[in-house]
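Lecture 7 notes: from sequence to structure.

We start with a single chain of 383 residues. Read the sequence below before looking at the structure.
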Amino acid sequence: MANKKKIIHIITALNIGGAERMLTNIVLNKYNFSKFSHYVIVLNNTGVMAQKIISEGVEVIDLRMSNFYNSLKGIILLFNILRRHKPHIVHTWMYHSDLFGGIIAKLLGYKNIIWSIRNTHIYSGKGISNLTFWIMKSCALLSRFIPTKIICVSNSALNSHVKQGYDKSRCIVIENGFDLELFKFDEKNRKKIRKEFSIDENLIIIGSIGRENEYKDYGNFIAAAEKMICFRKNVVFMLVGVGLDHSSIFYEIIKKKKLQHYFRFLGERNDIHEILSALDIFCLHSKSEGFPNSLGEAMSVGLPCVATDVGDVKILMKDDNYIVPRKNSNLLYEKLLFLANKSLIDRNKIGLKAKEKISRNFTIKHIFKKYNNLYSEIINNGE
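Now the structure, written as tokens:
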């Protein structure tokens, strides 16, 4: 460990999410980042991903900045930790960490500071809180002075933040990467999930994965599903994510229409790779995205996908045949019905092409190399 370059990651929390998964993959060193040792600092709430990191022997420190008083204590603790560890790089993830971690690292004289931007929804009151919006605006002002590089998860995220004042010259794009060893079709998982939710093999499952919020536009998906049920009775629509359980407003809507037989609301799950094997078609119905993890994971498994034209979907899919305008439930349902009417052999061919696109451009190993090269470049230039 003595010859390894030290990287300290600072993140707001370690719940299930795109940033959290990417950080976890990096620090767990799956593809032998032999030149680096990693430490993780969490501002508040370690979350479920923390246990995975800790179990592999990586140190995780929770500053517990849950209120104003604890935040003051946490800032002092963060200052002392960074001063004691003397990292070669401080890599912060998301706005709060970018601001607090970036300022403290700069005050301590560290030059190698990386910010990570994962968000595309950056308008106050829509997608983020007023406080987070103003923290983001503060980061925009400081982006010319604090970070060496700003990693954006997508081109759409980069462009939207440049419009908010971020220094474009420091921004680069490193997309999400997908683990083809984890996200692959498994017949046992298919049978297991279908049995768990009492879904016969002759039924076509159309699935959606993502937390319930305004930008995921589940109303669009529900509207398309209602239209499709009129033409196909052998379909089941599976919704997976935080808030998508029987307390969801959308479950109440379909219950009132007596359509609950056609839906399964799974809520938050930690076995997404198993659930994807149970699906026949994947649907991304958002009205705004950056670089959608769920779509890439579905493509990795070999699922035929229909997606709205948001964020970097066209870069990921590279196929206009199954991309529809956002907020257009008519075209969404038509494309879903078109796939459902195809034979299993034809759907598998479409899914195989999707998997090949991920394999060529967006494997986790490919993305790891980008991070590895960036870390090495920054350290070499800074020394």
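Residues 24 and 52 are 8 Å apart (CA to CA). Keep this in mind for problem set 3.
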